[in-house]
Amino acid sequence: MRLSSLADYAVVLMAAAARHCGGVGRLNATLLAEETGVPLPTAQKLVSRLAAAGLLESARGTGGGFRLSRPPSAISLADVIEAVEGPIALTSCVSGTRDDCAIDGSCRVKPHWSVVNGAVRGALAGVSLASLSVLEQA
């Protein structure tokens, strides 16, 4: 299992935004791109997706930009990853799309995948941006 580079970059951007939480005004994609090394077009794309998912609040015009919609302790890695990649689903059995499974009707493991998927999602949900941004500074 591996996250896409977009999901990875989204986590990096959100952790940087969490470090700025409570600081001066609003952030912008240019500032975060410079701080993190994420290419600016990618940062702009991700800021839009994260705002659409309700993780960032944005404002246009003078003094515009964005900020976290909730405290960093209330935003998890699962939230960020799902904002970019959609629901966490390790297999097609869990996602509900069985189109590519040749053994769907006879699989004895299928009933257990939701438990495994829940454990992985739970682990990601247990890591907040607040804890990640503290670890990142160490």
Write the layout of secondary structure elements.
Blueprint: H1 5-20, H2 29-36, H3 40-52, E1 56-59, E2 65-68, H4 77-85, H5 92-95, H6 110-125, H7 129-137
Helix pairs in contact: 1-2, 1-3, 1-4, 1-7, 2-3
Q: In words, what does this structure look like?
A:
- By secondary structure, this protein is mainly α.
- It has a single domain (5-137), classed as Arc Repressor Mutant, subunit A, CATH 1.10.10.10.
- The chain contains 7 helices and 2 strands, in the order H-H-H-E-E-H-H-H-H.
- It has helices spanning 5-20, 29-36, 40-52, 77-85, 92-95, 110-125, 129-137; strands at residues 56-59, 65-68.
- It has a two-stranded antiparallel ribbon with strand order 1-2.
- The longest helix is centred in the first third of the chain and has 16 residues, at 5-20.
- The two termini are 27 Å apart.
- InterPro entries: SUF_FeS_clus_asmbl_reg, TR_Rrf2-type_CS, Tscrpt_reg_Rrf2, WH-like_DNA-bd_sf, WH_DNA-bd_sf.
- It holds the Pfam family Rrf2.
**Weakly predicted, low-confidence segments:** none
Our count of domains comes out at 1
Helix/strand order, N-terminal first: HHHEEHHHH
Strand order of the largest sheet: 1-2
For the report, how would you describe the main beta sheet? 2 strands, antiparallel
- Please give the CATH architecture: Orthogonal Bundle
Radius of gyration: 17 Å
Overall structural class, as computed from helix and strand content, comes to mainly alpha
According to CATH, what is the topology?
Arc Repressor Mutant, subunit A
Q: How many strands appear in the DSSP assignment?
A: 2
Q: CATH superfamily name?
A: Winged helix-like DNA-binding domain superfamily/Winged helix DNA-binding domain
Query: Helicity level, as a percent range?
Result: 40-55%
Shape: elongated
Kindly estimate the percentage of residues that lie in beta strands according to DSSP.
Answer: 5-15%
User: What's the CATH class label?
Assistant: Mainly Alpha
Query: Averaging pLDDT over every residue, what do you get?
Result: 87
